[in-house]
């Protein structure tokens, strides 16, 4: 199973379960993940949702090697439709689920991995966690859900995009992207502790508090920016298609070995 799902004491725990490939995201994992989010959102016995990754790393991003057979002809229209549904639409839906959510992040969280943790309301990271979006070297301006500017601030966002270097858990905490940094062996326990505390709060009040913060960000332009930058992202795919016939694979060899 690509996703594990468990409910205990009003907390739904969703676990990415492809540790052998550092929880890389294929189509099946993302579809199962969306179903798990929906299940938790619809369950009246769930007050808080926790997202975690099994194994050494939270997520190495999109599975560029495990996507199955490729069609003979790929168009930008095809890429746009697939990415719009599985990347942009899924991430926005998870962000707006009317229940508090917490991402527990360990090890590497690369590129597409950001699409999983950024929609969560809180992020708790282990001391060894590193967040990165190195896809500029692949000819793409950033991942499909452009939370960079909001999560890191404009200058730090440009730095990690321009250089591809990872942001440490400590740096992420300083920018406000991460709420808490804890020792690796305490990550699950500290996340459960936070979730348990939130689960004691009145559900309707939690829903309204989340709605207030998200709507404030949307009034400031978050939602419109996410949508418009997704189109900018697609121009990178169009450029890659014109050179190689397949999106983002022009510089794939340069990405190998980044998991370390």
TrEMBL record:
This is Enoyl-CoA hydratase. Pfam families: ECH_1. It comes from the Bacteria. Belongs to the enoyl-CoA hydratase/isomerase family. InterPro entries: ClpP/crotonase-like_dom_sf, Enoyl-CoA_hydra/iso.
